[in-house]
Specification:
Layout (H helix, E strand, L loop, with lengths): L11 H7 L30 E6 L20 E2 L5 E2 L4 H5 L8 H14 L2 E7 L8 H15 L4 E5 L15 E6 L5 E5 L4 H4 L5 E3 L8 H7 L13 E3 L12 H6 L7 E4 L9 H8 L7 E4 L3 E6 L2 E5 L29 H8 L1 H17 L2 E5 L12 H7 L13 H9 L4 E4 L6 E6 L5 E6 L9 E9 L2 E8 L10 H13 L3 H4 L13 H21 L2 H7 L4 H9 L37 H19 L12 H14 L1 H7 L1 H11 L11 E2 L2 E2 L6 H18 L7 E5 L4 E4 L9
Parallel strand pairs: 1-4, 4-5, 7-8, 13-14, 14-15, 15-17
Antiparallel strand pairs: 1-18, 2-3, 6-7, 9-12, 10-11, 12-13, 16-17, 18-19, 19-22, 20-21, 22-23
Helix pairs in contact: 15-19, 17-18, 19-20, 21-22
């Protein structure tokens, strides 16, 4: 795809400073010739910045890629290309977009370029599963921007690679056809391809490439040395007399020079004996893998440390006779830094060395990896585990407290992570006073799409700005294909198709910001509510508006859930999620609920009035808006509150403070609430926790525009425009 070129945005002197372009001098032949008289002054060039843009979790899907298959080329378009895209249903049930983020990546690069930023770091998941079609596609785009003076530095994520070695069985079953149907496309080693299943398209353009193949293919984006860099090294580099040369770096950049030993129980190599002694048993399934960590100095004084925090642990299927089988390793997604500190101990030593050298040499060190180094849920993780279903919100991916201590102890002070598609900030000081800040860079492929710009203001002060992507040119380019899909699903009577029907109004959105906002509402409705919320909580969240919630927070009644069927029309709840309990010997009439509800309404009205609000206006907070807001805040933090606006934030603040200090406990039968609980008890007990979590997520450390005071060990807002639940 061709892109319009920008006007030259920097002077030759600035570009020379960054060592990004060669041969630039005051006598360049392309210098403008000024004739007299000058009617309109030429616009001042945008100064090139030494800031670094962090664009995490791009999840690039080449929407105009080439399957290299005679059976299926994608959806023919009017301009002669083929759209190789996933279905809208697949997007609306995934924690990442597959298609529109293609355009978001272009928009982010254009925005960064216009701001004078020439150094871009991608903290992993730069592709969606490292298929050749996607890897080649994003490489082509980055080369376009490299030609204009940008440099790219990537780190591996759990989607690139998915496994340490090539997976020729991979594929997807939800590519979109011109008829609006799903198409299965698998790599040639897939059992369906071997069996010549006629319903499957087979091409190795959708295989998942392993570490070494990616390192070579993407070498020019940091994985390999570049002559323009002042320094490039790996944890394994050894330079004569400590003197860096490009030739020496290149000679040591291959996979064989970057291998380490890993065992099922922990780090191998020189760390193995100590580990075996500590565990009191021998390490097993030991093998060699490649680590792609590197340190680079692209601009004088700036050090970028790209950390390969992927840890693929040998599993029960590991076969010493076939150590390169992808099936012999667990995925890295849930491992993250929890496994780095036990299975990649050489990295911890290397990070400590880099941090010490950076301090001694006065370098501006920015470290990044795919995974967060500390709690990214604003320290709400335990509360989320207590309130929601087991495993909800992927809390298994939250680092243990030991991780923050271990990373801080290396002396590293700034780390930028991704992985969770989450916008947030957290910091940690260990027992020895070592201070570490973890900045979570949000994904370009979800609601709250944005990238971070990190700049050292001085040796002890770092400025971090979040650049939202609410406006993305061409974001609706693929919408006509989704119309065909929607029509097909509506016209089909097949149960599987009926279950996949989605709200067509998302195609009426007018911006990428609106589109991702509604996408997260649909993702919540179609997936999160079932996957994360216990039955009775889901029923309440999907039935009650804000006014009903506020009244229910004030309700005191003896009418039970089992009696709700006898008091219709008061509140839209039932005993459907409850277990049958034994009724007490004396009960109140179900009709008394009406009086109790009216009393609670009076109390709710007082709470609203005291906050300068009207109770009736709370009804505008629909169930769909509420649970969408909750999930958007989980992922986007401070950015979500900005979208809500002050009025809705004020309503949430009233709800957060409305619940009893000590709600009555829920009587349970097994894992279900008893239907003999009074109507208000489950809601007040559970949603007090829900709103406390929402408050914590929306009142966390600054995550929009903020400064990090490394000496003072604090994070401070740099903008007065943010909203908070405090």
């Amino acid at each position: 795809m061709t892109r319009p070129m920008h006007h030259r945005a920097a002077t030759c002197a600035a570009l020379s400073l960054l060592a990004l372009l060669a041969g630039c001098s005051p006598g360049d032949s392309d210098a403008p010739v000024v004739t007299q008289p000058v009617q309109t002054p030429a616009p001042a060039p945008v100064p090139v910045s030494t800031a670094v843009a962090f664009m995490s979790d791009v999840h690039f899907q080449n929407v105009y890629g080439d399957f290299k298959s005679s059976q299926f080329a994608g959806i023919p378009t009017k301009d002669g290309r083929n759209a190789t895209i996933r279905t809208m249903y697949a997007q609306l049930t995934s924690t990442r977009l597959f298609n529109e983020n293609y355009f978001a990546f272009y928009a982010a690069l254009d925005d960064a370029y216009a701001k004078g930023i020439r150094v871009v770091a991608l903290p992993g998941d730069y592709t969606d599963d490292a298929q050749p079609m996607n890897v080649d596609g994003i490489a082509e785009i980055m080369k376009q921007y490299q030609a204009k003076g940008m440099r790219f530095f990537i780190a591996p994520g759990n989607h690139d690679p998915v496994e340490p070695f090539d997976d020729n069985e991979a594929g997807k079953n939800d590519f979109l056809t011109k008829d609006g149907k799903e198409q299965k496309i698998y790599a040639t080693g897939n059992p369906a391809c071997i069996a010549k299943d006629p319903t499957v398209i087979c091409t190795d353009q959708v295989m998942e490439q392993g570490t070494e193949r990616l390192m070579v293919k993407m070498g020019e984006f940091g994985f390999m040395p570049n002559k323009a860099d002042l320094l490039w090294e790996t944890p394994f580099s050894k330079y004569d007399a400590g003197k860096y040369t490009y030739d020496a770096a290149l000679a040591q950049s291959g996979g064989k020079s970057r291998e380490f030993e890993i065992c099922a129980e922990g780090s191998g190599g020189s760390y193995k004996a100590a580990g075996e002694a500590k565990l009191g048993k021998a390490f097993t399934k030991c093998t060699k893998l490649i680590d792609t960590t590197y340190l680079v100095e692209p601009v004088k004084g700036l050090w970028l440390l790209s950390i390969d925090a992927n840890v693929f642990v040998p599993n029960a299927k590991f076969d010493p006779a076939n150590p390169t089988s992808f099936k012999g390793f667990d995925g890295a997604g849930n491992a993250g830094w929890n496994k780095v500190i036990t299975h990649k101990m050489f990295l911890m030593d290397y990070i400590k060395s880099v941090a010490a050298r950076a301090k001694a040499e006065g370098k501006q060190l920015m470290a990044f990896s795919h995974y967060p180094t500390m709690d990214f849920y604003a320290n709400q993780t335990q509360a989320m585990k207590d309130v929601f279903k087991s495993g909800a919100f992927q809390t298994a991916r939250v680092p243990d407290a030991s991780v923050a201590n271990a990373v801080a102890a290396t002396g590293l002070r700034l780390h930028v992570g991704g992985h969770m598609h989450f916008n947030g900030t957290n910091d940690h000081t260990d027992g020895s006073g070592n201070y570490l800040v973890n900045v979570q860079s949000p994904s370009l492929a979800v609601y709250g799409a944005a990238y971070k710009v990190v700049t050292y203001k001085d040796a002890e002060t770092i400025d971090v700005q979040t650049m939202p992507l609410s406006t993305v040119p061409r974001f609706a380019e693929l919408f006509p294909h989704y119309v065909v899909e929607n029509d097909y699903l509506k016209g089909s009577s097949v149960n599987a198709d009926v279950a996949k029907r989605w709200d067509r109004s998302i195609l009426d959105t007018r911006s990428y910001g609106e589109f991702t906002h509604q996408y997260f509402g649909e993702l919540s409705r179609l997936r999160f509510m079932d996957e994360y919320w216990p039955c009775e909580m889901k029923e309440a969240a999907m039935a009650l508006n804000g006014k009903q919630m506020l009244i229910l927070s004030q309700l005191q009644t003896k009418v039970t859930l089992a009696q709700l069927k006898d008091a219709p029309g008061i509140l839209p709840l039932s005993a459907a999620c409850a277990a049958a309990g034994t009724p007490p010997t004396t009960t109140v009439a179900a009709s008394t609920l009406a009086t109790d509800w009216q009393d609670a309404t009076v109390r709710a009205e007082r709470l609203a009035t005291a906050a300068g609000l009207r109770l009736d206006d709370f009804a505008n907070l629909t169930p769909y808006a509420f649970y969408g807001d909750f999930h958007r805040t989980v992922y986007a933090g401070e950015l979500a509150l900005r979208d809500m606006g002050q009025a809705r934030v004020n309503q949430y603040k009233v709800l957060m403070a409305a619940f009893p200090a000590s709600p009555a406990p829920i009587v349970r039968i097994g894992d279900k609430p008893s239907d003999q609980n009074p109507v208000h008890v489950p809601f007040q007990q559970q949603f007090k926790g829900v709103f406390a979590i929402l408050k914590g997520l929306g009142s966390a450390k600054p995550s929009d525009h903020f400064t990090v005071d490394l000496k003072g060990k604090k994070v401070s807002n740099a903008s007065n425009n943010g909203l908070s639940f405090n």
